[in-house]
Design a protein that fits this description.
Layout lengths: L1 H23 L3 E9 L7 E9 L5 E7 L6 E9 L2 E6 L3 E3 L4 E3 L5 E5 L9 E8 L4 E9 L8
Parallel strand pairs: 1-10
Antiparallel strand pairs: 1-2, 2-7, 2-8, 3-6, 3-9, 4-5, 4-8, 9-10
The chain binds copper (II) ion.
The site of copper (II) ion has 4 residues, from β8.
């Protein structure tokens, strides 16, 4: 009697664990990713839009790419008429909301670009809850996807 009760309890525990992990993972998708590449010696900017399809905020805490050396989260700010870039530790995407990276705002900063125009580079986005999102970003020149 005791043994059969234990076996019966196991599937219930497993079911509860998988339901909990499904709720905590940020359900984030990406649109319009691209890299603005100039020269190997000049850091390249990365732009995209993050969409949070989940019911809790998703907090982006870092990024990495084998094509970038270091890949940082940056924000451009206007300080007394001068545009400067600051490193940010996290970017929060509200539940059911989106955050667009753009020139003059949030961007990924690819410190040592090792890429060519027309390539797609692999990028990993890391979130506060331990989940990661893998994507590829197409490499464009200074004028971007809408340019020549
Ligand atoms: Cu930057």
């Amino acid at each position: 009697m005791k043994r059969s009760a234990l076996i019966f309890a196991l599937p219930i525990l497993l079911g509860a664990a998988s339901a909990a992990s499904a709720q905590t993972g940020p359900q984030v998708s990406v649109s319009n990713p691209w890299i603005r590449y100039l020269l190997p010696s000049v850091p390249a900017g990365g732009y995209l839009t993050l969409h949070n399809n989940g019911t809790s905020p998703a907090v982006l805490t870092g990024a990495s790419s084998s094509a970038c050396g270091t890949l940082m989260l940056h924000k451009s700010e206007n300080k007394s008429g001068t545009e400067i870039m600051v490193k940010v530790d996290s970017i929060t995407v509200p539940a059911h909301g989106e955050v667009s990276f753009s020139e003059g705002g949030y961007h990924l900063m690819c410190m040592k670009p090792n890429m060519k125009l027309g390539e797609h580079i692999p990028v990993t986005l890391k979130f506060q809850d331990g989940t990661a999102l893998l994507l590829t970003m197409p490499v464009y020149g200074p004028s971007g996807p809408s340019g020549q």
